[in-house]
């Protein structure tokens, strides 16, 4: 039988150390702990946000009786500029949690329509309790934000679309 206090102490030890994996054989029982998610290392870990972000407001209720109003609302205002066809997709370089701002109280790094320069920070992706800033690789204008704040993202998932024109 595994002593729960012993196991909790091992988890704390691994969490506070620079070790990535720990394996112990004790009394015929093998215990394997790892910080890396499956596919990268041998164990499974779930990233936990260091601060809880504010909840997003619910979407406005749509009028089911007027389908034309729904189409118009989805298309946006008629005066909006159409982005060029050569948009640059910014994808997630890792699995983690997407945050639009450095902290829940801070304003987002970028908004829709914002001008960005190469090297500007677009967002933070938290992975294994590490905050990784994602920088824009091109200059242009943000035309689409494709991920929701404080939601998990996968490797290669589309986060932003930038119009380099």
Give the proportion of residues in helices.
10-25%
Q: Quaternary arrangement of the chains shown?
A: single chain
| Stretches with pLDDT under 50, minimum 5 residues | 38-55, 67-80
Roughly how many Å apart are the termini?
64 Å
Mean pLDDT, to the nearest integer, reads 76
Biggest sheet statistics: 4 strands, antiparallel
Spatial order of the strands forming the largest sheet? 3-10-8-5
Strand content: 25-35%
Helix tally equals: 2
SSE-based structural type = alpha+beta
Report the order of strands and helices. HEEHEEEEEEEE
Radius of gyration from CA coordinates? 22 Å
Task: Give a count of the beta strands, DSSP E runs of length 2 or more.
Answer: 10
Shape: elongated
Quick take:
This protein has two helices and ten strands.
Based on the model shown, name its key terms:
165 residues; alpha+beta; 2 helices; elongated
Can you describe what's shown?
The structure is a single chain. The chain contains 2 helices and 10 strands. With 165 residues, it is α+β, with helices and mostly antiparallel strands. The protein has helices at 4-16, 67-75, and strands at residues 21-26, 29-34, 88-91, 96-99, 115-116, 121-127, 130-135, 140-145, 151-153, 158-163. It is elongated, with a radius of gyration of 22 Å. 13% of the residues lie in helices and 30% in strands. The strands form 3 sheets. A 4-stranded antiparallel beta sheet has the order 3-10-8-5, with no helix packed on it. Strands 7-6-4-9 form a 4-stranded antiparallel beta sheet, with no helix packed on it.
């Amino acid at each position: 039988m595994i002593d729960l206090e012993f196991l909790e102490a091992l988890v704390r030890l691994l969490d506070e150390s620079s070790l990535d994996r720990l394996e112990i054989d004790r009394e015929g029982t093998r215990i394997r702990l790892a910080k890396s998610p499956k596919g990268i290392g041998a164990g499974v870990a779930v990233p936990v946000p260091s601060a809880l972000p504010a909840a997003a407001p619910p979407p406005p209720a749509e009028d089911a009786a007027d389908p034309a109003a729904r189409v118009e609302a989805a298309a946006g205002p008629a005066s909006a500029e159409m982005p060029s066809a050569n948009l640059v997709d910014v994808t997630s370089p890792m699995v983690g949690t997407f945050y639009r701002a450095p902290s829940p109280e801070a304003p987002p790094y970028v908004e829709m329509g914002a001008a960005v320069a190469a090297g500007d920070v677009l967002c933070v992706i938290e992975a294994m309790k590490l905050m990784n800033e994602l920088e824009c690789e091109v200059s242009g204008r943000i035309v689409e934000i494709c991920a929701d704040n404080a939601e998990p993202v996968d490797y290669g998932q589309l986060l932003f679309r930038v119009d380099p024109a």
